[in-house]
Amino acid sequence: MKGPRDQRGVTFIELIAATVIVAVASLGLMLAVGGAVGRSADPMIETQATAIARAYLEEVSLAGFCDPEYDPDGDPATGCRQECVASPCASGCGGAAFAAETDRAHYDDVCDYDGLADTGARDRRGVALAELAAYTVRVGVRDSGVTLGAPALASDAGRAVRIEISVEHAGLAAPIRMSAWRANID
Question: Quick one: DSSP state of residue 63?
Fold first, then answer.
């Protein structure tokens, strides 16, 4: 004869406990997956903001160091590198010293970009890119205070600037920032 201890199977209490454990585990898994899906756009926004920052940084870095109109000695044979020995953007060979261009399509030296603030990313001509309207881009060009060349050779003196780019978006925890140096090697 079989006793009560020899029976196989599960009791009603064990069945309810197993159901509760599976439900709690499933809920935790769904919350984790839901959170990941909800944040899946963040890497795309960050990647796009990084690409925008790189594009702006390249554009500014490729601009001339001196304004083309800069020629203090009137001799076209001497170039920007020999003549630009002052702070380039404040009082020297670019930007404000030569009435900085107001239209981005006509920017012709790095100093013209100082203070640029675009709501929505724009191309080189200043045309808004509709797909990137949610990004805000800021550009700063700061005098480094560094003199290039041997100090004894005033004719070989030059300056360097630091280009700073900041790209913001509501989906980013912090702005994407990039910077580069641009030396007077024109």
Answer: S
- What span, in angstroms and rounded, lies between the C-alpha atoms of 24 and 22? 6
Contact 121, 52 (CB under 8 A): yes
| Torsion over CA: 131, 133, 136, 140 (sign) | positive
pTM for the model stands at 0.71
User: What does the alpha-carbon distance between residue 17 and residue 107 come to, in Å, rounded to a whole number?
Assistant: 72
| Model confidence pLDDT, tens digit, residues 38-75 | 655 578 899 999 999 999 999 999 988 888 877 777 78
Residue 110 token pair: 């790095």
Q: Do residues 158 and 181 touch, judged by C-beta distance below 8 A?
A: no
The SS3 call for residue 122 is strand
Angstrom CA distances, 35 to 28, 39, 160, 178, stand at 11, 6, 46, 29
12-16, 39-43, 68-72, 155-159 — which is least confidently predicted? 155-159
Residue 86 neighbours by CB distance under 10 Å: 15
